[in-house]
Amino acid sequence: MTARFDVTAVGNAIVDVIARCEDSFLTVEGLTKGSMQLVSQDFGASLYTRMGQAVETSGGSAGNTMAGIASLGGRAAFIGKVADDQLGEIFAHDIQAIGVHFDVAPLIGGPSSGRSLINVTPDGQRTMCTFLGAANELVADDIEPALIEQAAVVYLEGYLFDLAEARRAFAKASGLARANGRTIAFTLSDSFMVDRHRGALREFLRTQVDLVFANEDEVKSLYETDFDSAVRTLGGEVKLAAVTRGAAGSMVIAAGETFSVPAAPIEKVVDTTGAGDQYAAGFLFGLAQGRPLEICAKLGGVAAAEVISHVGPRPQVSLKDLAAASGL
Amino acid sequence: MTARFDVTAVGNAIVDVIARCEDSFLTVEGLTKGSMQLVSQDFGASLYTRMGQAVETSGGSAGNTMAGIASLGGRAAFIGKVADDQLGEIFAHDIQAIGVHFDVAPLIGGPSSGRSLINVTPDGQRTMCTFLGAANELVADDIEPALIEQAAVVYLEGYLFDLAEARRAFAKASGLARANGRTIAFTLSDSFMVDRHRGALREFLRTQVDLVFANEDEVKSLYETDFDSAVRTLGGEVKLAAVTRGAAGSMVIAAGETFSVPAAPIEKVVDTTGAGDQYAAGFLFGLAQGRPLEICAKLGGVAAAEVISHVGPRPQVSLKDLAAASGL
């Protein structure tokens, strides 16, 4: 069946609250630099009072990736949960405005829309404290079958592995995808998430996933070994994997073969938020277009370079134009 | 009496919703480029559905100016009205986070917090459609006398001239300021606002204002004449005036004498939102510190140059450091 969407993603619908801070702020607050931790509403509210002035932008890992695919000219859909409030309206507006299909009904009478308090240090690293709120209420019923069945690739956000209900939603999505011969992609999202769910994750990857996105820390955490051994193991478990290595570019493992692609050049790293998300966007777009894997990885690099050159996790210029300018 | 604050401002508490657009979008939507128009909630909601993905940042003209003064190391207070909702929390957080005193109780059970839908064209010009919401509900009782009596300068935002209740608040503020020997500053805000209230505005400036901020369009609209004549007339009506001229810098008129100060150099104009607000911040900070008027105007230029070099109406780096780096 021809696909109506290049990619449909299931992820946390989140609005980012982004402030700059000094490294000392992280120390005082007891936050681990570069990590994502889930926090309660009270913890978040308290931390917020001590953060600097912020900007708000739609975020969420898989939501960012779908925005990137739309910016590349691809057809994307997103499944995630917001509340019936102002932040929820902002999330829905932004993802629809860039052309992503999004029509999950907002949660009424429950917690407010999820937000991620992101503190960016002068080196551009982001440290995230996420209050999931309504995003936590995503259930299997929110997975509209047609959106899965009609997508060439179904992309699942690893952060949802923390949530029992969302894992049931994943099971439904991956089952539908498998039944329709669709590719199932998964991102490991965060090394601490990997640490919390190592066994279940390995089983999930082995049995239900075709394509894995990871960064160095995540893949090392997954197999509790050094990078080279971890990559070898990963290559034996899934058909295809793409591992990002920051300034060192990315590595693609396909059918036992491994090759590296250098990072796209960039003047200054302003805010690394969304780098992995945009890499996935470029890679998935290329894949859905049937491009060679090396081109997929390069498209990922171009998209990632754009997003780390400014504050905010989604592209601010047309990635389609950028890719064309890079000869891709 | 020694002043507890350098400046206390009365203005619209607004959250900006900033999206990029092509010039053709303004044409299709029937919006006058560079203008600010007040819109209903319905008009705003409808326009929003057609705008691109956006970022949200605290805004409001006088609120931006107070943030600028705090960034310069000054002591500022702000009086304006938000609702008891998520955008109101964002506004309150941001202005307090930068060190501005703000403690007006949020409006409960009325309209939602005000927001300005700002479309920025490729040339960096901003076109604003503002739904005032709770900001429209500012009343004289919200003017805490101590905040006015203890400020060296009281700064009134011209946009509030559209609102009958807010004009009563202005009268209270300017009366208290006069009784305590404080300087009363006023910004004309927008040439269309000037056009709507020309007679009342001239009377207000003549009788209650010491210092006027304006741009070229506003001062020409105020006296319905050419720029040079308008500036001459303005100089005869108030003790002190500062007129901004975009890339041509600014002009200061004091006791019949006029002098010009060139604009601070800038690589690229990204978004002009907040340029006039930050000019006022630099000027007012210099004035409160007892600096010569030429330095005040230069401080204004440095602050304005910072804010137009990025998206968003408030400084993103320390203006105090920038001013020091410019030898001010």
Explain what the structure shows.
The structure is a homodimer of 328-residue chains. Chain A has 328 residues and is α/β, with parallel strands linked by helices. Chain A has one domain: 3-Layer(aba) Sandwich (UDP-N-acetylmuramoyl-L-alanine:D-glutamate ligase). Chain A is 41% helix and 21% strand. In chain A, the strands form 2 sheets. Chain A has an 8-stranded mixed beta sheet with strand order 5-1-8-9-10-11-12-13, with helices on both faces. A 5-stranded mixed beta sheet of chain A has the order 3-7-6-2-4. In chain A, strand 6 and strand 7 form a beta hairpin. In chain A, helix 3 (61-71) packs across helix 11. The model of chain A has no long low-confidence stretch (mean pLDDT 95). Chain A binds chain B through residues 19-20, 48-49, 51-58, 67, 85-87, 90, 93-95, 97-98, 112, 312, 314, 316, and chain B through 19-20, 48-49, 51-58, 67, 85-87, 90, 93-95, 97-98, 112, 312, 314, 316.
